[in-house]
Each structure stands twice: as C-alpha cells, then as structure tokens.
Design a protein that fits this description.
single chain, alpha+beta, 5-stranded mixed beta sheet
Amino acid sequence: MRLSRYFLPILKENPKEAEIVSHRLMLRAGMIRQQSQGIYSWLPLGKRVLDKVNGIIREEQNRAGAIELLMPTLQSAELWQESGRYEDYGKEMLRIKDRQDRPMLYGPTNEEMVTDIFRSYVKSYKSLPLNLYHIQLKFRDEIRPRFGTMRSREFLMKDAYSFDLTQDDAIHSYNKMFAAYLRTFSRLGLRAIPMRADTGPIGGNHSHEFIILAETGESEVFSHKSFVNFDIPAEDTDFDDVAGLQAIFDKWTSVYAATSEMHDEAAFNAIPEADRLSARGIEVGHIFYFGTKYSEPMGAKVQGPDGKEHLVHMGSYGIGPTRLVPAIIEASHDENGIIWPDSVAPFDCVVINMKVGDEACDAACERLYAALSKAGKDVLYDDTDDRAGTKFATADLIGVPVQLIAGPRSVANGEIEIKDRKTGARETMTIEAAINKLVG
C-alpha cells in the first residue's frame, strides 16, 4: 500500500477527550473515529488490526473444534420472553419495534438465539458435542461508555456456545475453550491470567475471566506471580484428550488469582509476600458454564443413548476483539506511539523514502516494495513528500514492527537502514540482504 494513496488521518495533537493511552493513540494514529457516544467507526488502519485479531481468534476456535456461523444483530423479543430475560436484562438492552409493531431488540448477547437454532435441528446425542461461534456486533447501552473502544456501546464480540449431553461432557467443552483462550491471547502478544469469576445462582468453579495486567485496567486483581512462568498449551494440543485438557485447567487454576469481586484476603495473605501480585487489569475474555439455564425454559433436548430425552448442558465463551485492540496497545507502547506485536501489526514493514523524486531512492524503494509484496508481506510504502521527521514520527506512531529507510547517502552505497520499532535497534545492509532478512 502506497501511503500517498492510503487513508491515514494522523492527528498531531493529543485529543482532549481521550483519558487513557490506547484511546489517545488510536485516535492519533487514525484507527478509529467516534460517531456518537460510545459508537465508533473503524478506519482502514484500525480495521487491518481488527481483522488480524479476528483471524487469530478464528484459528484457535477452529482448532478447538468450534464451528463458525453468523447470527443477526436484531433479535425477536419472543425468544427473550421465552427464556425469561427480556424484562430482567435492564436498560442496557436497546428495545425497538419494527413497522408491524413487533417487539425487537439489538442483541447484547446470543444465548437465546443459538439455543433456538440448536433445538430446531439437533435431536440426538449422536450430534454432540457441538460448539457454535460467531464474531458479530453487539449493543449494550452502557450508562457511561468510556476509554474509546475499551468500553463502548456498540462492540464486536466473539461468542461461542457449547452443547453437551452431560455435565462431565460440558466441563470437557469448557476446558477446550480454556486452553484455546490461553493460546489465543498468547498469540496476540498478551499474557492473560484466568481468574475465577462469579457463577451466580448456578454455583461451581466453572466461570473464569481472562485478565491482562495494565495500569489503566478497570479491575483490581490479586494473584500469585507464578502465572508468569506457566507454559501456554502447544499448537499440537489434542483437544479430544479429556485428561490432558483437565491437567491444563488444573495447572492454571492451582494457584490464587481473583478480581476484587472474588477476592479472599486471607487466602491472598497466605501467599509468601515475594510471590504476591496486586495490580490492575483489563478483562479480555470470559468463559462460563451455565448448565440447563437456557435449555430448560426453551426446551432444548436430545434423545440420549437410553432412548429418553435429556436437556442439554450449555456454556458460553466470549472474547471482545474491539476491546482487545486497545488492550494490546495498553500493554505495548512507548512515548512515540504504538508497538504492535508482529501477529497483529497492520503492516509487516514500512518502506520510508527519504527523498522522493531522487532517482536512486525511488528505484531502491520500488525494488523493496515489489519484492516484499511479491513475497506475501504487508508493506506500507511512504512515498509522500513529507519531511523526514514527519515520516519517522508517523512510522513510530502507527507501530509497524520494521522500518526500511532509504536515503540518498546509503542508497548510493547500495544499502538501506533497518530499524526495529520495538527495540529501536538499527542496522545497515544491502537491499538484497534486507529483502532476504524479511522474507527468509
């Protein structure tokens, strides 16, 4: 992508409405634009990052055996009345009527709709286990939306729903998502700590929030420091291995970790002082087993191996991609801008032409741009006539991992300079070596 033809509305000044680093940098880097309170457009740079986040989420959901579908944003109120949640949900739900005066709602979540889909088609235990997921917009009319897309009214959510014949089967489905979430956040460059969450009237120990540590986090968290050294489940994890997944779950829940809502001061104080971690964190995912909470009122049953009908056991598993993007920025930035992990960077590298119009510089940059693009790299080519300082500031702000700098002096020697955005390290090498380094 040539920057001269790209839509990248950089802001030079810090926006006054931005309270936290991620909101400020997302606005300055031209990633988002606020359209109304808590509602944002994702501009091209932000959309590229969001798509890469969604891509990793999809890969790990698919690896764990979940199956993607797409449910609508607008839902019939009848399903929610059937489950008993329509009146209970509160003012966060946006209730509307269509032209036939039928009550509708802009979905804040999809338990009712996915249960209706399930009960319409699945009749036998032989079709289980089943986990259906989608990545779809949601709306919750937050009383105080804040922090940009960290807490907005309209947001993107990956929500998955598992269906099993028995509670034991449902716990195995839960453990699949537990391991998949650990892998997902690690691939996004985040160290997420699973913390036991409130299960409400259902009880039990199968509700966990995944928290990343950040000074601007809304949650106060308490945990054992050993989480830092726990191994992430491998790419070849067998998601059909019941004992293996249970071992992963047991390991990651073997030491203390809790948000302020679930905090046990005595248990925390029992940890040696040197191993205690008290900090603030951002919730980036939540998984929850809720048994027959929805299958019972909505009649979601299957015929079991005994020939009798059984209510299915369900769980739900959420990740907020539009929250993850600012969370990554909160965890990875410096005074000059964003530092993207390679896995979600909007571009793999940026080619910076220090003297547009200079025949040698133009030729060197065109060679780099063509070779790297042909090799499948996402390349941004800064071919604008801005000053060098502006070009460097833009490259640092938007956080592209590698900068390839072509100036008249270095190009005259057949060389360019490579800068690593994260470390700031620079090295000079031939154009051919630079191409091999990035491709190889």
